[in-house]
Write a structure and sequence with these properties.
This protein has 301 residues and is an all-alpha fold. It has one domain. α1 packs across α8. The protein is globular.
Length: 301
């Protein structure tokens, strides 16, 4: 079933879009700091609870009453995918393949989102979108098949983790757009982070915190949970509701650009020419899928 096209982006939407791009682009570096101090599982679980606490405080200050009745199952699904699945994949994948390459993987999220929306019947493929789909597949192949580092078991695990992360993010966005479109973004975000944190926490028994954290570790964790999760996810779910899942998730293009530039210029990470070309192919493919080269917007749910 086709639905009316989402609203066009206004100034507030554009500002939110830009903030998301910068905050999420730099979050890869903060993720590495969190993993070093708290381990992959701890970094995700503690980040989720901090994000939920910060957002709950904000809703209290602005006197917004959150309502979870009747939404527990949808919020659990979003928490399991967009939060727990995506963040666990990122924390296990990023240290193994580097922030720049992880960011290029993230650029494929809009492609997966579009395919899932088509499967769900809330969008459709045109000829240019089919071309974009095949370009995206080719770009991911170029990215993984021609790395700047030796192809070790650890590298393969990192790639698999990133694919899991991006698929989780895409599914969660499409699902939230379909099932929670009329739910306030604060309710979605708090509920999803509580669910994601509770689902992740038991795995600390298998992968515990590696050492005693120092004060600076908690600073990075607060930045990760309070800013790069609480504020950004609040803005993101608001964008999903206003402009649709596919258009909102296209912010990952700019996230990738910010992260790759930071990784290359500040962290001195290396990418092969084929990987850079693969990243560009992914971006072009996703742009075709999103209809960014056409004179009209995609029709989403």
């Amino acid at each position: 079933m086709m639905h009316a096209a989402p609203a066009h982006m206004g100034p507030k939407d554009s500002a939110s879009y830009a903030f998301l791009a910068v905050a999420w682009g730099l979050s890869f570096v903060v993720i590495l700091k969190n993993i070093e101090a708290f381990g992959p599982v701890g970094a995700v679980a503690f980040r989720c609870f901090i994000a939920a606490a910060v957002l709950t405080l904000i809703t209290f200050i602005v006197r917004h009453k959150m309502v979870f009745a009747g939404r527990v199952w949808p919020l659990a699904v979003v928490g399991a995918t967009t939060v727990a699945g995506q963040l666990l994949g990122l924390t296990y994948g990023t240290p193994r393949i580097g922030t720049a390459m992880a960011a290029i993987f993230v650029a494929a999220i809009p492609l997966y989102s579009m395919v899932m929306a088509v499967i769900a019947g809330t969008d459709h493929f045109t000829r240019s979108r089919w071309v974009g789909l095949f370009l995206g597949i080719a770009g991911v192949t170029m990215l993984v098949g021609f790395p700047a580092v030796p192809v070790t078991a650890d590298f393969v695990i990192g790639c698999i983790a990133m694919v899991f992360s991006t698929l989780s993010a895409a599914f969660g966005s499409v699902y939230a757009n379909a099932k929670l479109r009329d739910t306030p973004s604060a309710d979605i975000t708090v509920g999803a982070f509580i669910a994601g944190g509770l689902m992740t926490l038991p795995f600390l028994a298998l992968d515990p915190v590696p050492r005693a954290p120092v004060p600076m570790d908690f600073v990075y964790l607060l930045i990760s949970g309070g800013v790069m999760s609480a504020i950004t996810y609040l803005l993101y779910f608001r964008l999903v509701a206003r402009i649709g899942a596919t258009r909102a998730i296209s912010v990952e293009f700019v996230v990738t650009l910010v992260a790759v530039l930071f990784g290359a210029l500040v962290l001195d990470e290396k990418l092969t020419a084929m990987q850079i070309a693969g990243g560009l192919v992914i971006v072009v493919g996703c742009a075709l899928v999103l209809g960014l080269f056409a004179g009209r917007r995609s029709v989403t749910s």
